[in-house]
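PROTEIN DESIGN WORKSHEET
SECTION A - STRUCTURE
LENGTH: 253
TOKENS:
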């Protein structure tokens, strides 16, 4: 359903809003595709100076739709991972416009890993961050195995990516991937203030400086491809299939 993702242009900002509250904004194939398109079409639009990614109903995103995960794990398709998810990750890797994330509530899986591609992250005091890939028999994705140790150190990355420990907003602030913590319900408003501040700066100087600060896109896509191949293999593993079935058993119980 296209109304699960709302894209609006407001002056020099493009706002991408996840709106699937009944599923905690879990991301479907269609939502991945539309987020990717929203980012890609902003690249050569001189009127769009900044991108905001946010959620609704006090939730950022519960990550990939788990039913899609299960379908992919039992599919006979010989593909590394769903192409819509990978396309979205490629869009993040190649993006040249500053991205601000406004995280209110849970950010699970790709809800956390996408933040390491963003330039400025705001979180509410109720925000939590978790990457339970290994608990599902999977591996990290989104170039997180490259970006997370680089941002917050190997030990924190291991505890988060491998052990699956949840981080609070204050933990994330200390770890260095959240810029500021605000009151619940205020992340989007504060993100707009940050966006206006960035949009007021000389655009070319921002673009050049941003490029200097970030890893080359080819480094990111190389790691995305490596992770994606392993992710696809793991989705069809006995460990992952058993973990998914156990997840749904607990969910129905």
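SECTION B - SEQUENCE
RESIDUE ASSIGNMENT:
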């Amino acid at each position: 359903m296209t109304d699960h993702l709302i894209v609006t242009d407001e002056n020099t900002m493009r706002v991408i809003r996840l709106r699937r509250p009944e599923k905690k904004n879990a991301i479907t194939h269609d939502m991945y595709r539309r987020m990717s398109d929203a980012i890609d079409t902003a690249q050569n639009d001189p009127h769009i100076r900044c991108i905001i990614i946010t959620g609704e109903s006090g939730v950022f995103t519960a990550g990939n739709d788990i039913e899609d995960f299960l379908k992919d794990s039992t599919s006979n398709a010989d593909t590394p991972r769903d192409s819509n998810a990978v396309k979205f990750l490629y869009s993040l890797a190649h993006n040249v416009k500053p991205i601000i994330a406004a995280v209110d509530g849970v950010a699970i899986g790709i809800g956390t890993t996408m933040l390491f591609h963003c330039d400025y992250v705001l979180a509410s005091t109720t925000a939590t961050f978790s990457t339970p890939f290994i608990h599902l028999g999977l591996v990290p994705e989104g170039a997180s195995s490259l970006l997370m140790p680089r941002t917050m150190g190997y030990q924190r990355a291991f505890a988060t990516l491998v052990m699956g420990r949840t981080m609070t907003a204050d933990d994330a602030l200390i770890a260095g991937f959240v810029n500021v913590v605000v009151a619940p319900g205020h992340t989007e408003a504060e993100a707009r203030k940050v966006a206006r501040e960035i949009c007021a700066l000389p655009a070319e100087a921002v673009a050049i400086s941003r490029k200097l600060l970030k890893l080359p896109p080819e480094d990111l896509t190389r790691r995305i491809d490596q992770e994606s191949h392993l992710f696809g293999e793991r989705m069809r593993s006995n460990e992952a299939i058993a973990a998914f079935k156990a997840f749904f058993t607990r969910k129905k119980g």
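SECTION C - NOTES
Strands lie at 5-10, 13-18, 50-55, 99-103, 106-108, 120-124, 128-130, 167-168, 180-182.
The chain has eleven helices and nine strands.
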